[in-house]
Every structure is written in structure tokens, then in C-alpha cells.
Design brief:
alpha+beta; 52% helix
């Protein structure tokens, strides 16, 4: 009877820990969906927070290389870029079968470059995967704010997506 009680206590502790992690993840997710949160902590910190979530899930190793100053993108443009980056990361999760994500952020005086790379399965840029509405919508959203989205992918070598902004 005492052994069953110890096992039950261990299971309760594990369940309590999992619930605590779920609550923390839900809190982080709700902050990421809140546009004011992005303005409050800044664009770069919002991106780092999002990437930390992906790494904490245990499926990816995430590297962030931030050249120069923290990236700040004004007003609604920052929210659009943030949502596109979320979509890119979700696509990596769903389709890439990757274990590493590299994010390069480089803001110069006149332009900004954000490059997200994975070491996943890649895809044929001329195939049906490349012609999906999701990729087109991301490119259209970046174009609306005056930027450009470029995709490079090679089968079994991964994918690189660049967002360049004026």
C-alpha cells in the first residue's frame, strides 16, 4: 500500500510539473499574439521569445545571430513581419523534418535582412509545394510593406527564406 502511495505521489508531481509548463507556454503564446507585447518588449526580443518556445519544445536547436543593433520595425510593418516569421517557423515544424533553425538578423542604416534557415528535407522550388497559397501569401504580405521575400531550397539540404526590408 505504501509503494502505491509513493507511485501516486510521483505521478501527481509529474502532472503538476506538466500543468505548470503548459500554463507558462499558454502565457507566452498569449503574449506573442498580443500586438502591444511586441511594441513593449521590442521586435527582436519578441522574435527571440518565439524562437525560445520552439527550442523549449525540444524538437529544434535554434541559433539567433543578430548583427549590429536590435531590430526595430515600426508600427504595423513589425507585426506583419512577426506573423510571417511565425508562419515560416510553423511550416518548418510541419513540413521540413529539420532539427536546426538558424535566424540571422542584420539591420543596416538603410535596409534590414532577416534570414531563416533550416536543415530539413527541402523542397523543389518548381514543384507543387512551392506553388502553395501559404508561401504566396507570405510574399504578398512582405511586398505590401515594401519588402521582398526570397526562398531558396534544395532537396535534402534544407530551406532558406530571406525577408529584406527597406
Amino acid at each position: 500500500l505504501q509503494i502505491n502511495s509513493m507511485v501516486a505521489n510521483d505521478e501527481i508531481e509529474i502532472a503538476d510539473e506538466l500543468i505548470g509548463k503548459a500554463i507558462a507556454d499558454l502565457r507566452t503564446l498569449s503574449h506573442n499574439l498580443n500586438t502591444n507585447h511586441i511594441k513593449e518588449i521590442g521586435f527582436t526580443e519578441s522574435i527571440k521569445s518565439l524562437l525560445n518556445q520552439f527550442e523549449r519544445a525540444g524538437k529544434f536547436k535554434v541559433n539567433v545571430i543578430n548583427k549590429g543593433q536590435d531590430l526595430e520595425i515600426a508600427d504595423d510593418s513589425g507585426l506583419i513581419v512577426f506573423r510571417v516569421i511565425q508562419e515560416i517557423l510553423n511550416n518548418i515544424t510541419k513540413h521540413a523534418n529539420a532539427d536546426t533553425i538558424n535566424v540571422f538578423i542584420d539591420q543596416q542604416k538603410d535596409d534590414t535582412l532577416i534570414r531563416i534557415e533550416d536543415n530539413g528535407r527541402g523542397f523543389d522550388l518548381q514543384g507543387k509545394e512551392a506553388k502553395g497559397i501559404g508561401l504566396k501569401n507570405m510574399a504578398d504580405r512582405i511586398r505590401i510593406i515594401g519588402g521582398k521575400l526570397s526562398i531558396n531550397s534544395e532537396i535534402n539540404k534544407g530551406t532558406s527564406i530571406e525577408i529584406s526590408l527597406p
